[in-house]
Amino acid sequence: MRSHNAMRDVEAEDAGWEASKGAVYGAAKWGVVTAALGGLGYAFSPLYRSLTVQFKVYIQMSGMVFGSMIEADYRLRDYEARVRMQKRIARDRAMWKQFEDQYGKDEDDDQTPPPPPPPEKR
């Protein structure tokens, strides 16, 4: 017997996929930025040119890891906000439906509103 809610497993899996997509996107985006900065450093800086290849790769990877963390966190927070909003909307709809079932629908809800009166002539 499961001791936890299976729906939470689906939500956690979806959140994980969303964070993974964000991490890949962030690594690619920040990888391009750090590669461009590395190219500029190679073109204009004798200090950067004197660095070892291993250290240049480390700098490139650091930028990509940083970007993947930032973007994954952003996507995960955005996903959580969307899920909270969907749950709030579903809860409000259920509460409203319960209210309508308990007290009945208003008679005016099914009819279109009457047209506004014509403007008065002076």
List the helices and strands and how they pair.
Blueprint: H1 6-44, H2 46-49, H3 53-103
**Number of domains as seen in the coordinates:** 1
Span between termini: 79 Å
Strand content: under 5%
Low-confidence stretches: none
Structural class of the helix and strand makeup? mainly alpha
Main sheet makeup: none
Q: What's the number of helices?
A: 3
Shape: elongated
Indicate the radius of gyration in whole angstroms: 28 Å
Average residue pLDDT: 89
Estimate percent helicity.
Answer: over 70%
Number of strands: 0
**Topology as a string of helices (H) and strands (E):** HHH
List keywords for this structure.
mainly alpha, Rcf3, elongated, 122 residues, 3 helices, 77% helix, 0% strand
How would you describe what is shown here?
The protein is mainly α and 122 residues long. The chain has one domain (9-103). Helix content is 77%, strand content 0%. It has three helices and no strands. The chain has helices spanning 6-44, 46-49, 53-103. Helix 1 (6-44) runs antiparallel to helix 3 (53-103). The longest helix is centred in the middle third of the chain and has 51 residues, at 53-103. The chain is elongated, with a radius of gyration of 28 Å. The protein starts with 5 loop residues before the first helix and ends in a 19-residue tail after the last helix. The model has no long low-confidence stretch (mean pLDDT 89). InterPro entries: Rcf3. Residues 100-122 are annotated as: Disordered. This is Imidazoleglycerol-phosphate dehydratase. Residues 112-122 have a biased composition (Pro residues).
